[in-house]
Structure formats: C-alpha cells, structure tokens
Amino acid sequence: MSLHNLELLLPYGLTGIGALIVLLLGVLPGNKNNKIPYIGSVVILLLTIFQVGTLFHYNARIENFVAINPLTLATFELCAAGGLATILMAQYYPKLNQHVDEAFYGLIIIAVLGTFLLVSAINLLAAFIGMELIAIPMFALIAWNPKRKGAIEGAIKYAVTATVAAAFFIFGIVLIYFGTGTLIMNEIPQALMGPDAIPSLVNIGIVLLLIGVAFELALAPFHCWLADAFQSAPAPIMAFIGSIAKIAVLIFVIHFAMSIAPIWGDFNSVLWVLVLLSILLGNLLALRQTNIKRMLAYSSVAQFGYILMALACVSDGTSISMVEGLRAAAYYGFSYAIMNMVVFAVIAMMSKYNPTGELAGYRGLGRRYPLAGGAMVIAVLSLAGIPPTAGFFAKLFLFTAVLNSGHIGFVILAALGSAISVFYYLRILLAFFAKEPQPSVSVSTTGRYSVTESIDFGSTLVMTICAVGTIAFGLFAQTALNMMF
After folding, report:
1. Looking at residue 442, what DSSP letter applies?
2. What pLDDT is attached to residue 316?
3. Distance (Å) of CA 272 to CA 268, 278, 409, 416, 481
4. How far apart are CA 304 and CA 287, in angstroms?
5. What pLDDT digit, counting tens, does each position of 329-346 carry?
6. 406: left (phi over 0), alpha (psi -120 to 50) or beta
7. Which of these, 385, 382, 376, lies nearest to 432 by C-alpha position?
8. Phi-psi region of 150 (alpha: psi -120 to 50; beta: other; left: phi over 0)
9. How many Cα atoms occupy the beta-carbon half-sphere of 194 within 13 Å?
10. For residues 24 and 40, is the Cβ–Cβ distance under 8 A?
11. HEC per residue, 326-385
12. What is the DSSP code (8-state) at residue 485?
C-alpha cells in the first residue's frame, strides 16, 4: 500500500483510533471528569471533518475494498458532522446529561466509522462490516440510561430488526459470492457472463440483500420497528438514526446500483413494490399520529419511498436517466438529513417541557422561543416541499428524473403523497404556534419566563446551523450537486 493510499485512509484512522483515545480519556487517574472525553470527541470529529475536506480532489480505489470519490467524501462530511451534532445535543439533553460518559462518545465515533466504511464500500463484505458498526452502537445508545421509560423495549426491537436485516444481507452476500465468485460489486455483472456463473442464485442473493437494506431504511412493509425505536430513543440518538445512519445506507445503495448498472433494471419490479407501499403506508400512518416522534418515523417511510423512486426508474447503466436518477436520490438524501436534524434538535431542546413528544405538549412553545419556532417552520416547510427550501428542490429534481423516465403514474402517486404530508406537517406548526392556555414553566418576579431555562447550547447551535443549511442547500442546489458528483 502506497503513502497516497495511507492518506486516503486517514478518515478511518482518525475515527477508529479516536474512539479508543476517547475511551482512554475517561479512565485517566484522578477525579472522573466527563468534560475531558467530551472535548476530546468534539476535537476528533472536527479534525476528521477538516481532514476529509482536503481529499476532495481524489478519486481512487483502495485494495478493492473501499473507494474514495466526491460523493463518498461529501457523505463522510455529513456523517462526521452528524456525529458531532449528536454529541453536542446529548451533552445538554435532560434524560442523558447526567449519564453521558466516555463510552457514549466512543460509541458515537465508532458509529461514524461504520458510516464511513458503508458509504465507501466497493466490496460487499466491507458494506456488511460498516452496517454492523452502525447497528451495534445504536442498540446500546437507544438503551442508554435504561431507567428511562421504554428504553429497553426500544433497544430490543432495534436489535431484533438489525439482526434480521443482517441475516438477509449476509445470506444475500453468500448467494452472490456462490453464483459469481466475487464480492467486488462492479465485478458482479461481468462475472455473470462467465461459464461458472449461476444467475438464478445471484438474482435471489441481490433480492435478499435489498430486503436487508429495506429493513435498515424502514421501507414498507419492513418499517414496523421504526416508530417504536424513535419513541424510545433519546432525541439525539433518534437524530443520528434518522438523519445519518439511514443516509449512509442510502448512499451504499446508490453505489451498489452504479456498480451493477447492467443488471440493476432486472430488480425494478421489487423496488416499485417497495415504493408503492412506502408512500401509501408511510403517509397514511403519519396522518393518524399525535406524537411527533412517531409522526416523523412514519413520514420517514414515505420520504425514503420517494427517494427509492429515483433508483427504481433507471433501466440501464448507459442511459442518462440513471445518472439523473442517482443524482436526484443523493441530493434528496442529503437534504432530508439536514432538515430532519433541525426537527430533532428542536425536539431535544424542548424535551425539558415536553418529554413525551405529544403534539399537545408543544402548544405555544414556538411563540415562547422564537428561534426554535422559526427553525421548526423552516424544517417543516422543507419536509413538505415548500420553496425555497432544500426539500422543494429535492422533490423537483427527483420528480423530474422519474417523469423523464416515463413513470408518470408514480409521479402522480408521489405528488398525492406529498399533498397528504402537508396536512400532518402543518399540525406540528399549529401546535407550536397555538396560544398556550397556561404557563408550563416557572415565572420570574418580572412576570416573564426565566431566560436561563431556555438555554441549550448544543441543540441551539445544531438547530441554527442546520436551519441555515436547509435554505442554503436549496438556493445553491446545483453547486451541491457538482460537489457530490
């Protein structure tokens, strides 16, 4: 391995070794001080973000295991920033701030390493390892502070789902390897042309692999775990699962589709079934929810149903529709991660006043805290696809790509789903800006709410940056696309 390749491996090294350093910082001699591993984890992720930014001119494959390209590096930046946001929010989250220690920070950094490995994988074994490096820390983090109501239940449900997804995924890998003799993704189509190939086994293997991915993305009908996991998880962990882990899986699917482009169209029927069920069930179930966490979970099912349309509408690797579809899917994924992070940051910030997440508990909080209310407006309008937010341009690019491929029926279905989503997204804003019947916090002698109660540095910082990013990512959409491809 050359020095050039070693430089490209630095993001993996910084996160892998950095996680161990953070764990060691927590066991230093003397009085236990959780501030030291907290600062250490923040520094490590900031260094990772900076170091990844120096690699954008590279496009290389390393030992037929991982590949470094602009889309991979852009996702590295998103995942590292998402890990940093999770740590910042957890530091001040009421149900966690007395229980967060070096093990918590170390698990977050290991999960970030897993996202790096998953999104850059060109070998199916690397993808599986990356997926498990995300799933195992998430299982522990959902159950963090196990005395919380529902913590153990949510963790067990997530663990069972992750195990089933891993079983489908690894069994699919086994069948693909048995049928082609290779685990390198872009060699699969060529290997199928060989005399020893077994195409039927490979087709079954790819379908099983896609089912494993569908579990991870919570696509219908494999979505039942998501709402319970979201409701049970602390808001910062919910943010990482919903905004970072799922996007990492999405980018892997995009790379997988590009790698097996000559045969990808053979599986469109499977993808269209997932699209249809996800858009219908996701939106209809979200419409019935009175809890914001469960609503976001089911809306996520629908959102990824839209994204999957872009991957299902491509038919061959030489068509313009494939490039257009994959670009639209990647942009939608990044936009969704940023605007979703805003909502999770507001939920984390307001958890001291509404720990259950019931919509009725947010009455008047948007009026009382204008910054949080304004950020929620931006995020919700973006989720609904209202201009000039990133969500609008994401839907515009995606629907255009699907329409250009001739699937007008699914565009109409997605448009109807988006129209339905407006109703339940607006319910969030109506709750936030409704008149509050009675003050729910202590009042100072001047008759105003205590200013100190509303201060939450981590969530406020994440919320503000991501809200600005939601607007900027929409206004500079073409620049963002050029960076990723």
Report:
1. -
2. 47
3. 6, 10, 11, 16, 25
4. 17
5. 999 999 999 999 999 999
6. left
7. 376
8. left
9. 15
10. no
11. HHHHHHHHHHHHHHHHHHHHHHHHHCCCCCCCEHHHHCCHHHHCHHHHHHHHHHHHHHHC
12. -
* Peptide linkage before 437 cis (omega within 30 of 0): no
What separation in angstroms does the CA of 473 have from each of 77, 148, 311, 326, 382?
A: 14, 36, 22, 18, 11
Q: What size, in residues, is the chain?
A: 485
Residues of the chain with pLDDT under 70: 1-4, 30-32, 97, 315-321, 437-455, 485
Structure tokens at 425: 């997204």
Helices (H), 181-291: 188-191, 199-217, 224-232, 235-240, 246-259, 261-264, 268-287
Which position has the token pair 């602390």? 234
Strand ranges (E), 32-106: 60-62, 66-68
| Token pair 């602009």: residue | 70
CA–CA gap between residue 485 and residue 468 (Å, rounded): 23
pLDDT of residue 485: 67
Helices (H), 93-150: 102-120, 124-142
Give the C-alpha separation, 167 to 10, whole Å. Answer: 31
Backbone φ and ψ of 330, nearest 5°:
-65, -45
- Residue 46 CB partners (closer than 8 Å, separation 6+): 84
